[in-house]
Amino acid sequence: MTVPTWTVVHAAWDDPEVRALTVAQQVELRARYGGGSEPGTPPSAADVAVVLLARDADGAPVGCGALRPLEPGAAELKRMYVVPEARGRGVSRQLLAALEAAARDRGWTTVRLETGPRQPEAIGLYESAGYRPIAAFGVYVDEPDAGCSLYYERVLDPG
User: Fold this and answer.
1) Dihedral over Cα of 101, 99, 39, 151: its sign
2) What Å distances lie between residue 31 and 23, 25, 37, 62, 118, CA to CA?
3) pLDDT tens digits, residue range 6-59?
4) Of residues 129, 32, 116, 131, the one with CA closest to residue 90
5) pTM surpassing 0.85?
6) Residue ranges of the alpha helices (H) in the chain?
7) Could you give phi then psi for residue 50, rounded to 5 degrees?
């Protein structure tokens, strides 16, 4: 059994390493979807409550993810991303588990997310982690392209 060679740490939304990862994520998504803008309201330092950064054994950033509060008891997963060279090694699974633990620590019992049909890796991760398809939620309900997105939710087990 291989022992993970990365760590997950708290970070700030405007941390330069987090910004670099979120920019890379958006570049990749725009390439997959042929440009355009993202659905919903882009996350910001003012509305993101939790930001986690995954680092490899050398301390280099390899992934990130964030949580934005929705309504009492619920948060939205934002900007989950792992650099291509670190994929397939369990980084995203560990990052997702750490984000869910952070949600529990804040009393959030439900995590929701928006993803797209051209992200089969993300869909596979979320479904294997217990996320179930739901209808559009929050700001996504009124999105003109809401039908082009996929929405998921997981009710968290008590820690």
Assistant:
1) negative
2) 12, 10, 11, 20, 10
3) 899 999 999 999 999 999 999 999 898 887 777 888 899 999 999 999 999 999
4) 129
5) yes
6) 16-33, 91-105, 120-128
7) -135, 130
